[in-house]
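Protein modeling request. Please complete all fields; requests missing the sequence field cannot be processed.
Requester role: graduate student
Desired output: 3D structure, token encoding
Chains: 1
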Amino acid sequence: MDKSNRSGPSRSGSLMAASRAGSMSGAEFNALSFEDRLEAVRWAEAGLKYRLLLKAADTSDLVAALPAQDLFLMIKELGREEVTEVLALTTGEQLTAFVDLDCWNQDQFDGREALLWLGLAMTEGEERVLQVARSLDFELLVLVCKKHVHVLRGLEAYLDDEQPRPRTGYYELAFKQQDFARLVGALLECLCRLDESFYVHLLEAVRSEQDVTLEETVFQQRRARLQDLGFADPAEARGVYAFLNPADFDPARFRRAGGPAVQEVSPCLALTAVRPQGVLARVLAQGIDDSTAWDLTCLVNRVLAAEQADIGQRDQLRAVLKRVYGLLNLALEGLCGEDVERAAELFAATYLQPLFRYGLSRTLLLQRRARALRRSAVGPYLEEPWAALVAALERALPNYSPALEEGDGVAERPIADGTELARCDQALTVLEAVRRLFEEHWQFALPVPEDLDLAGCLPAAAAEMGLSHFFLTALANRLLGGEFAPRPLSPAALAALHRQVCDQGRLSVAVKEAVLAEIATLESAAGPFAAWCLARWQQDLCSLAPEHLDPRFVSGLLLRPA
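Delivered output (562 residues):
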């Protein structure tokens, strides 16, 4: 079933309802209607969700009504062994989902983890063991058993009444993993005692099914169940990153189909694990209906599948959610600006995957420009913070580098709003203008690093050379009466440059204004780069007294000390 087509009533204010419920006494909470208590539990973060479930008089009914994905995230965050009271109340469908989400590495099944899930879910007496076994996906139960037991002999060996029967009914078993033998033996013995026909059916399946065939069957069934939650195959899921031309994007083409209300409760994990920012935060604060909640969950699950992230690892889940929220926010800002009401209408009426792709495509346009700069002649010589900006945008999923505003050492993050997008655009515009200066306006060509001859020079390695070295050295040569070219300066030329461009420990205002004016006539957008380069003269050249000039300690110029 396509969950994104579901519709239902608005859930406005549910996050606040969860917070209020957390401060209630048990009597006050249980005085609420079942629907209100369920809403409070749904929208609560993991710790509060668990406390509310324990506070409820009908915990079993609330657990059964919760989406398996939300329960799984709560259990994983708090720890299986810490929430056994809740785990023991889960349905077979929920437990099957837990195993689907947690016990596969690509197409390899982890029978040990699966048994731990089953064992903790069967802790409330023998009837619970039988209930779980009957309600679990049968082929999955067979696969778990095959991972732990060999059936050595079956019914045919005990037709003679004088032949003593094993404790596990009409089957002689060998346990593959001794550390789990006691648990597996106890579970099978319980099934044999309570429902012998089911037990025989299970053990005959364990005995007859081929390992490879059974695992492939269960894997395919798992794929189908996960696809219903939005978890596509990684190759198919990567379609969520397909480019959409932002200039041609029309949200009306992607209107969400309406349909009858569905009573099944929508997951809320995407609305509780991470808080969004910007216009999207204000849209979600108004509440969304079940159809949108399903669509958002399916989008998040699709991105998780595309990145092959582990939904059970909170850090990985939060990283995906931050990117999804950021790109959805970029889409809403790009289409609606700051008009929250219009954004809310668009969010409620449009499939979210195309909106996500639209937001992503706005960043992919920046990525294309960054990669073109990297391939150009200026690419090898980009300096910080410009290099950090380009490197962040070149990622498979473009990131934002705050280095231009905050300095070096600041971590990248997903682009999340129009302000960050505009800053990247502005910085790329500067670098593109700089590229034209070097490639079209100036008469010297930038060499490839492998051809750069730095014998006897400072810097001594091509990896230490940046665009500022070429520009400032060429500028210095011209100010000293030579050609505008990056020829290394001698110590005498360095002293002469100091006298010409420095004025009482400061960069000459006249020199600065003249250089910036000239750059503006060539490429007006390159002004910030020229100013940044001249700031190096202020810091590394003019701040030094003439007697302290030493080529070893002057950066931003190509020098030949000898």
